[in-house]
Write a structure and sequence with these properties.
single chain; about 70 residues; alpha+beta; 2 helices; about 25% helix; about 20% strand; globular
Length: about 70
């Protein structure tokens, strides 16, 4: 297995961002980019798709979460 290539958003200029990698089987890995050895969360393609749709729809905006 090859080492996953993690990427961060082009909007991340301060470090401490989320890093994401796509696997050949469709799963998506997520980790803290300032700690490469940190725990990695894995999501199925369907879970990731649903999450991204929620982000695009504004469902995770702190204002709508009550923060």
């Amino acid at each position: 297995m090859t080492t996953p290539r993690f990427a961060t958003s082009s909007f991340c200029h301060h470090g401490g961002c989320v890093a994401v990698a796509a696997l050949p089987d469709g799963r998506v890995l997520v980790r803290d980019d300032k700690h490469e050895e940190s725990a990695v969360l894995a999501f199925t393609a369907e879970e990731w798709r649903d999450f991204v749709q929620g982000v695009k729809n504004g469902e995770f905006d702190p204002a709508t979460l009550g923060a």
